[in-house]
Design goal:
The chain is an alpha/beta fold and about 200 residues long. The protein contains seven helices and ten strands. The strands form two sheets. The protein has an eight-stranded mixed sheet with strand order 3-4-2-5-6-7-8-10, sandwiched between helices. A two-stranded antiparallel ribbon has the order 1-9.
Length: about 200
Amino acid sequence: MPHMLERRDRRPARDRKSAVAVQLVCALTLGLALVAGTAHGQTPSSVPSFTATDIKVLNKLLIFLRPAVKANGIIAIAYRSGNAASKADAEAIAAMIGHGFMTGTAHLRPVPVPANRLLADKFEIIIPADETPMQEVAAASASHHALCVTSHVARVRAGTCTLGIVSQQRVTIVLNTKAAHRAGVSFAAALLLMIEEV
């Protein structure tokens, strides 16, 4: 009986890594499309500024964040101090995130934080609610090397937030490379193939 030989991948290591990156992007694209498709048509008339679908997309994107989150930390849901509507929006976002995200072995939990206190504590991620003063968010993001994420793409284009997620009907992700550089964060090359950089 002929001897069965083990089949080996003889491609160069660089080509194998590229293939893995493409597979990751394809899987993520399909996953994000399913997330957006599931949510479309099911959105309540009044929703927080950062929706449940945005949260699901962000959770999927965290595997591409560099440096990777390695310790338990906080997602600051920033709001304008003294503004009841802004605080209510932040609390609604925190409630939707619930117990938080698990990324690797790290657990990130949401905490509503007045924007004027962002510099006082350490945060891994900042999500600004409606009416949040974005200059304070930008300063805290740079100081803490924290990723700022918003559903308001205008904030990303203005450079006051790093990453924009728009998940209505289809998922659009926008990255401000200058804001990312100021915050000392980046994303794996596989993700950069499917997002808009400004």
